[in-house]
User: Fold this.
Amino acid sequence: MSTTTQLKIGSKFITVMYKNYVVIVQKRGNGYTVWVRSPGITLERMEIGRGAQVNPTIFQRIQDPGDRIAISDIINYITMNFDTIVEEEMLKALESIAKDPRINFVPKPPTDKERLISLLVDYVMRERTIRTFYIHEGGLTDRTSVLGVYCYDQTRGYYRECEEELKSEMIKIAQGIEWVKDRTVARVVEEAVTRIKGLTLTKLEYMRHALVIGDKIFHWDTFMKTGILEDGLTSPSPDKVVFHWTPWRIDIEKWKKVRKGLEQYIPPKNISEVVEAFVTMAPKPYEIFYSWVRSPTEPQEVSRAKIGLLLQIIGYCLYPHDYPFHKAILLVGEGGNGKSTYLGLIEKILGEWNVAHVPLSQLDPNVNRFAASALYGKLANVAAEPPTEYRGRFDPSLFKALTGEDAVPIERKYEDMFFAKNYAKLIFSANVLPELGEDTKAFWDRWIVIEFPNTFPRTMSRDEFLEKYLLPYAQEILICSIYAFYVALRSGGFTTVGAGDPKEEWLKRSNPIYAVVRAMIDDGLIVLDKNAKVSKNDLYQLYVKVCQDEGERCVDKRILTGFLERFYGIRSAKVKVLGKNLSVYVGIGITLDGYTMVDKPETPREWVIGAKQVQPVQV
Assistant:
């Protein structure tokens, strides 16, 4: 820069005085705001993006072409070297102060408290690799956020949060020193933690889509290139930043034995091949999975496809840092059917430290605004919804953000709030669901519903069952799950053969009126037909009868009428029957089977479906 310039600096601005011009460059978000002034007036104000260059021709109000070039050079130099200039000028200022003979820099001897802080810091850092990770969010906020203090687990090969662990250790040491007063301990430990954070501050750079499985890092990105397990495995080290560890080892030889008939190794190309390997490697777990999802009315290949889906879901949870396909899982079915055992298996495979347990109802932002924080840094959120009634309607906005890879605010105690994308896969088991505040395709497309249709006698606890029948095959289940999700990633989606209709299942479990009306339709007691009509009293009487048989709470006729109008487009009318006005529903009719359950029906027999051809409605 020209020797005729003079600098004034701050952390966010640099001011340059050149001849009778003042150039001010202020750092903002993803760029800079620049002012060019001369005495009394602003000649130019502009916004410049990072890396952009200023052309001298824009300074039309500066008469001298040489000055235009000089000022544009000044601006371009500052915007390209802003941080370096600030740092160099700050160091020069410190050096000049240090050389000033008027300033006495003789350090004071450290106090007992300062010595204790130094000893604590040295002790906890001596044999640990500690990193205080931070991220730079950029954008409009241009903010740096600290994620927390992490220690490298030398035995397992991954980084885990450890701030509370370090505090606890330092508190025990400090309390054991006779002269340290109790009221001093907390302040000393907090200052020691602050010093550790400053000494270990590290920009977050990590192995994406990687986790430690057993004693090896498994890197999905490398594995996906070839489909060969060995290619995805590497040895852990502190410079390979990974945040998840699962306790099960990948036994490659077991998988090779299953595929030994091939002249050269070929990864499975579809879910059927994975399920075939599952049958061979883990016959007992295969039988259990099959018993969970088998329906007597469906072909065996459909049930086997659903077994493949159960494996894909486990593999889905083992895929960190992204939420591909934007799917949440809903397990449905009455009690004692295996849902809880399957959820327990997922938690055991992943490791309980990698799993959150936030119920679906808590993912309503109006209920719990901190719910997303509980999911941060987890592989899965596994929750059985409690069998209680919900108050109000469920707001799915946070749920859609969590499954849609939108950045959500993460608020943690004593830490900076920051924004992050959730990758904990959402898996719920529910017999009762909340009513929705919206009915959109975007919401229903986020769900995969799996029915567990069978009921089993309870002979042992869930944990005993897992330990006896499933966890001895944990390695085999793990490998098959990895390959099942490999197939999903290669094909661009899950195997959904036999999966339920999310909207249908949700309405049945969130709206007791819908559940009863659906049961009446499924049992052939009523029919939706635009040409049908039925007495309101008769239909309501039938509804109450079925409602009581189903064990549901019945609503009054007015609420039932509103439901039929809203969900099925049924309309109300009055018609004359034998000279009397009769209140009827148009678009719905009672069948002959339903007619036999109504005491003293008002509906004319010729209107009954099955008794006679339904006549066109004249109302």
